[in-house]
Automatic annotation (TrEMBL):
Extent of Basic and acidic residues compositional bias: 187-205
Region of interest: Disordered: 186-205, 328-373
PpiC domain segment(s): 173-277
Origin organism lineage: Bacteria, Bacillati, Bacillota, Clostridia, Lachnospirales
Keywords: Isomerase, Rotamase, Signal
Signal peptide bounds: 1-20
A GO term for molecular function: peptidyl-prolyl cis-trans isomerase activity
Protein name: Peptidyl-prolyl cis-trans isomerase
Amino acid sequence: MKKRLAVVLLTAVIAAGAMAGCGQETIKDSDVVATVGKTEIKGNIANFFARYQQAMYETYYSSMLGENMWTTKVDDDTTYEESAKETIMQSLEELYLLNEHVGDYDVSLTEDEKKAIGEAADAFVEANGENVREVISGDKETVEEVLQLFTIQQKMRTEMLKDVDRKVSDEEAAQKAMQYVAFTYSEESKSEDSESTSDTKEEAKTKADTFLDAVKGGTDFEQAAKDQETSALDLTFDSETTSPNEEVIAAADKLDAGQVTDVIETDSGYYVAKVTSTFDQTATDNKKQQIISERENDCYNEIVEGWKDDTKIKENKDVWKKIDFNEQGVAVKKAEDDSDSTDNSTSKDSTDEENTDDSENTDNTDNAEEAAE
């Protein structure tokens, strides 16, 4: 029978609050899951890190992918569990890779940071029963090491990105604004007994033409949309924008403020757009931040990839397989959903063990909570 832990994870760097549930740990603390350079990643660290990430996956995606999410195929050869665990392993290896290069940037933990990490680890241990901690390798020393790795990563990233060019001109980031209306259609023909409410291609085209004639005749763009029982949507864009459709963007990009496109036919419907501004300052400022973020990510990834190329990384896949997401579920749970979940007594753990079937724990796994310190 599949078991599930309900988890509260409060991120300072990270810290965890109350958990409910239990299971049988199958990976040993001393197992070596991978080696990064000369550093061995032990089973306890890998398990705790993996379970933390698993909790996020299950909380945010299980409602879309269902209870069998981990066995769902993402392609012909790979399950969702295998895909997620590959990503998780890469992230874990990256943490240790960064840790090996702290000397490159003179990065270390301050006494205040070490104290905060210790307090977070103590709070985790106090909040969670022994059986729960065993399942996720949640002893104080393990939690402290993972918190240290996260803190080092944050500090390293700051140092690695110090020289990134953060100057972006209005011209480089310039964004325009438009309103547009879409008249979509279904290729399937309607029959008298059909329950479909979708327009046919001909009906959509008629509505689009009627809409455009009304706008050209002086009717307000939004009112004309309401008259056709649809809505005018707002969008900021530049020449590289692809939504809602590249043809719509290309047509609008040629216009001045106040001008309206012709009816534009696409594979899914007919569009009419009106340019409302040839320079939207708020959208342009947001685009500047996006450009800066892209530069930072490119710089960070380039440095990390260079280190990977120069570092021997070995994964012990047989050991990594011992961490099974399908048989042992973990999901985030708000502490206020169940005040009893902070009880660390043996009787509490025993009760949770009896309620490991997913159908009995639905209420414990519906909500997620992350908080910054």
